[in-house]
Specification:
transport, cytoplasm, PhoU-like_sf, mainly alpha, 244 residues, Phosphate-specific transport system accessory protein PhoU
Length: 244
Amino acid sequence: MSGTSKEHIIKSYDDELLRLTGELVRMGELAVSQLEAAIDVVDRRDDRAAQHVVNNDDAIDQLEQEISHDVVRLLALRAPIAGDLRNVFAALRIAADIERIGDYAANVAKRSIPLSMAAPLTPTSGLAHLAELAAEEVREVLRAYRNRDAELAFKVWQDDVELDEAYTAYFRELLTYMMEDPRVITPCTHLLFMAKNIERIGDHATNIAESVWFQVKGEPLTAQRDKRDLTSNPEPVKLGDRPD
């Protein structure tokens, strides 16, 4: 094979990988937009808009299928090895994580439909804070992926503790509301599920961070991550604990 032909093949592969990266980033941005739209319909108590957000999840699913097809084609046609193979497999794993992020965003919108039929609740404002933290995590890890920035990916991986702490605090707040007024148990239960979906979005952002680290460094991320989701064994909640 001539040097010119080899250079052409390498450039063609690089172009395909660049296009794949762009598709993944676009898919991730769409998932973040879905999350923000889901929180918006919670605030507006708009069940029709919520259903629209749920229906839009199909677009993310379609993108994930297209990216999976592109990955299989790259494997078949380019037979990548070593670092190139890591790039391809990272794309496949990241696409799956983004697809789950879209699912969780759709679940938040879906839960907002019955919630909009109940009387407005003060704790809904805490949900927006969780969503802001999760959206920022996803945006930052997408930037780390686009720029092949392992250190930024590691920072996102570490910073997920902030979302864990906020989720635990919100969980305790909702338990307090339910203890004080049994009439709000049903709507608060919806909020609990919505909050857990948002917390899981953060977990998938850390999965993406691990994929980026492996893609760049060629080794798994083996550090111990601080977990602050204490809801599986929360401290007792007292009636006087509710924040003002």
